[in-house]
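Table S2 (text version). Query chain:
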Amino acid sequence: MTEQLYYHIQKLVPDFTVTQEKIAPFLHTRMVKKEELLLRENEICDTIYFVNKGCLYLFYEDKAERQVIHFALENWWITDYKTFADGKLAVYSIAAMEDSEITCMSRKNYESLLLQYPLLALYFNKIHERAYGAALMKQKTFATVSKEDFYRYFKNTYPQLIQRIPDPIFASYMGVSMEILKTYQDLYVS
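Corresponding structure-token output:
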């Protein structure tokens, strides 16, 4: 377990006073290389990932192309939430967008941790509320604004993030071709 994750927990749940040493056995931290796959579609999803450094992304394959639907930067958790919860085969894949340091926790350890330290349920509830809210906002934005306006919004709202995302991954996330993305980039040069 990293101090970064421990402080993240304490930031969201200040009353959490369990020591790092007590929760560390439930987690393990490792390095992953750019484009390393952490989860593949049709595999059992039994792990949730916290990003200490770097960025992961969630995607599915359609006609041999990656369709990116979500990113996880520093201090974000990511998994295939549907199948992490029900133990069925994953419908998404997860890969590292850049060399990253991640903390991993199995479903078994997740459940054991929450049973042993119930206050962590509040922490994960806050994490999941934020993630769900962000997903709904993206869905609403996609339904109510043009792709060009979405690009402008994303560029203005997340200027550091957009610099980190490779163009093919961002084009997939937006649901546009590389040519269209290039047009937007040319229009909104900083």
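Notes on Table S2: The mean pLDDT is 93. Strands lie at 28-32, 37-39, 47-53, 56-62, 65-72, 77-78, 93-96, 100-106.
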